[in-house]
Automatic annotation (TrEMBL):
<dbReference type="InterPro" id="IPR049555">
    <property type="entry name" value="GDT1-like_CS"/>
</dbReference>
<dbReference type="GO" id="GO:0009535">
    <property type="term" value="C:chloroplast thylakoid membrane"/>
</dbReference>
<dbReference type="GO" id="GO:0015085">
    <property type="term" value="F:calcium ion transmembrane transporter activity"/>
</dbReference>
<keyword id="KW-0472">Membrane</keyword>
<keyword id="KW-1133">Transmembrane helix</keyword>
<feature type="transmembrane region" description="Helical">
    <location>
        <begin position="109"/>
        <end position="128"/>
    </location>
</feature>
<dbReference type="GO" id="GO:0032468">
    <property type="term" value="P:Golgi calcium ion homeostasis"/>
</dbReference>
<keyword id="KW-0812">Transmembrane</keyword>
<dbReference type="GO" id="GO:0005384">
    <property type="term" value="F:manganese ion transmembrane transporter activity"/>
</dbReference>
<dbReference type="InterPro" id="IPR001727">
    <property type="entry name" value="GDT1-like"/>
</dbReference>
<dbReference type="GO" id="GO:0032472">
    <property type="term" value="P:Golgi calcium ion transport"/>
</dbReference>
<feature type="transmembrane region" description="Helical">
    <location>
        <begin position="223"/>
        <end position="252"/>
    </location>
</feature>
<comment type="similarity">
    <text>Belongs to the GDT1 family.</text>
</comment>
<dbReference type="Pfam" id="PF01169">
    <property type="entry name" value="GDT1"/>
</dbReference>
<feature type="transmembrane region" description="Helical">
    <location>
        <begin position="264"/>
        <end position="285"/>
    </location>
</feature>
<dbReference type="GO" id="GO:0005794">
    <property type="term" value="C:Golgi apparatus"/>
</dbReference>
<protein>
    <recommendedName>
        <fullName>GDT1 family protein</fullName>
    </recommendedName>
</protein>
């Protein structure tokens, strides 16, 4: 029993240390993590001295660390949700779902579209996490070595997205011209796609949307967010943002294009990219 207690205590200490080493990826979790780690360390020491004691106040400390992490990741969830939602409205993948839903079962098109976007989110988050883990390898020289490269790259990418989106929106002519172009591209993408049963429609929709989404702005934004924030919060926020987009695509169809302002969506989306970039760069500078 004493050996089992020591094993659990060491495991708790290791988990807490790993949490602290990644604490800079959240808004302000350092103080919560440090307090929890101090409590856990004290409990481990008490267990080594009194191996027969079955009181483990480390558990409340671990709960405190988990609660602090959850609360600190909520801004990452909201940021991911808003960026994805405003990036995907009127996008090529959106109109692929719209056009397919006009000729196929809406349920099968929804499952294929949402499944493809969710899978792409997982792939993008994994790439972002790999970029974060490579932070030590990509260290800057000299006095810049303390700056987090992953945060700088992510912030720079988001900043570029924001500025380019605002410029494109400013240069747009009156009317939803860009949405019309995206719809034409989607029409070309689904040419040759025939009918089929439910399973075949889901599979063909999945393949079309996944291929169209590869290299898209929303994918690169997800990679950038996952590199500098909580991957779980980014994945959850992105998937939550894709859900209403997919529902709108298969239910409202082309009517949405006539009822929304392309410029308003562009300005909101570009502003969100800029805000996310500034928050990411500020977080990296504080580290």
């Amino acid at each position: 029993a004493a050996q089992l207690l020591r094993f659990h205590a060491r495991a708790s200490l290791l988990a807490a240390r790993q949490g602290v080493s990644r604490a800079r990826r959240y808004v302000c979790p350092q103080r919560h993590a440090a307090r929890a780690l101090d409590a856990i360390t004290a409990d481990v020491l008490s267990l080594s001295v009194m191996p027969c004691s079955f009181t483990t106040p480390a558990l409340p400390a671990l709960a405190q660390l988990s609660t602090a992490t959850s609360m600190d990741s909520s801004p990452d969830f909201v940021k991911s949700f808003l960026l994805i939602f405003f990036s995907e409205i009127g996008d090529k993948t959106f109109f692929i779902a719209v056009l397919l839903a006009l000729r196929q079962s809406k349920g099968s098109v929804f499952l294929g579209t949402f499944g493809a976007l969710s899978a792409m989110t997982l792939v993008s988050a994994a790439l972002g996490e790999a970029l974060h883990l490579a932070d030590g390898v990509l260290a800057l020289p000299g006095h810049l070595a303390s700056l987090p490269v992953d945060d700088l790259l992510a912030g720079g990418l988001l900043l570029w997205f924001g500025l380019s989106t605002l410029k494109e929106t400013y240069d747009l002519e009156e009317g939803n011209v860009k949405m019309a172009e995206e719809q034409d591209d989607a029409q070309e993408a689904i040419e040759g796609v025939g009918g089929g049963d439910f399973t075949r429609t889901v599979a063909s929709t999945f393949a079309l949307v996944f291929a169209a989404e590869w290299g898209d702005k929303s994918q690169l934004a997800t990679i950038a967010l996952a590199a500098s924030a909580s991957p779980v919060a980014v994945i959850s926020g992105a998937i939550a943002g894709f859900l209403p987009i997919c529902l709108l695509a298969v239910s409202t169809g082309e009517a949405l294009r006539e009822s929304v302002s392309e410029k308003a969506i562009g300005y909101v989306g570009g502003s969100l990219f800029l805000i996310s970039a500034l928050l990411t760069l500020a977080s990296g500078a504080r580290t």
